[in-house]
UniProtKB/TrEMBL annotation:
InterPro entries: Chemokine-like_TAFA, TAFA-5. Belongs to the TAFA family. It comes from Haplochromis burtoni (Burton's mouthbrooder). This is TAFA chemokine like family member 5. GO terms for molecular function: G protein-coupled receptor binding; receptor ligand activity. It holds the Pfam family TAFA. Keywords: Signal. GO terms for biological process: G protein-coupled receptor signaling pathway. GO terms for cellular component: extracellular space. Residues 1-25 form the signal peptide.
Length: 128
């Protein structure tokens, strides 16, 4: 009888420890991204001006060595760092398949032109 009480206490402590370990690993797994992937954190749209919508999005990326956050097929993606440093934005294929990509004159971004003539302009803002 004297051995049962400490044995149950030890078993209960071990079960609590395992549950705590399982919860901790689950919380860490949910907060981390797989290497080479991105997710959209915030997306704000402003349609207050006629015929014009301003969209701002913030993405969180876990890029591999030699990569940096960029845009591929209108989605956040990890791209080669050389594309960003050289400001040759169209090399990361930022537009959808049926759209044409053109650099802005000052290389501060790019435009995606749809077959119907609609133009989407994207400008890059450097994060501090």
């Amino acid at each position: 009888m004297q051995f049962l009480r400490p044995a149950w206490a030890l078993t209960a402590a071990a079960v609590c420890f395992l549950l705590l370990l399982l919860l901790h690993s689950q919380i860490l797994r949910e907060g981390q991204l797989v290497a080479g992937t991105c997710e959209i954190v915030t997306l704000d749209r402003d349609s207050s001006q006629p015929r014009r919508t301003i969209a701002r999005q913030t993405a969180r990326c876990a890029c591999k060595k030699g990569q940096i956050a960029g845009t591929t097929r209108a989605r956040p993606a990890c791209v080669d760092v050389r594309i960003i440093t050289s400001r040759q934005w169209c090399e990361m294929t930022p537009c959808l398949e049926d759209e044409g990509c053109n650099l802005l004159v000052n290389q501060s971004g790019w435009t995606c032109t749809q077959p119907g003539g609609r133009v989407k302009t994207t400008t890059v803002r450097k994060q501090a």
